[in-house]
Amino acid sequence: MTETLNEVKPGHICRVVNICGTNILKNRLLCMGVTPGATIEVVKTAPLGDPIELKIRRYSLAIRKSEASGIFVEDVRESVKKSVQESVQESAKKSVQNFSEASE
Asked: What is the pTM of this model?
């Protein structure tokens, strides 16, 4: 399930899926290491909710909530679960193919 980074609670880890916004904002975020596939930990938010402190690629980064609203992420646990399911399905297909070939 995808959500925006500003919706992620402190202490959660997520993976970047997509970045939306102006070209200037996208380029700025990309230069700071916020790229699709990057893993981000939401460390904490300021008392009034803005800015948000993140841990990405071994460094801390603080961004505005408005900037975080253009970063679409998925929960790392969901992403791992999805990749495991895909791997199991692929293994099952190969097993069925091998069994079909052996029985011919």
From this structure: 0.69
Residue with tokens 């293994």, as numbered in its chain: 91
Would you give per-residue pLDDT tens digits along the chain (104 residues)?
Answer: 678 988 888 888 999 999 998 899 999 999 988 999 899 999 998 888 789 999 998 899 999 999 999 999 998 876 555 666 677 777 777 777 776 776 66
Q: What's 2-77's CATH class?
A: mainly beta
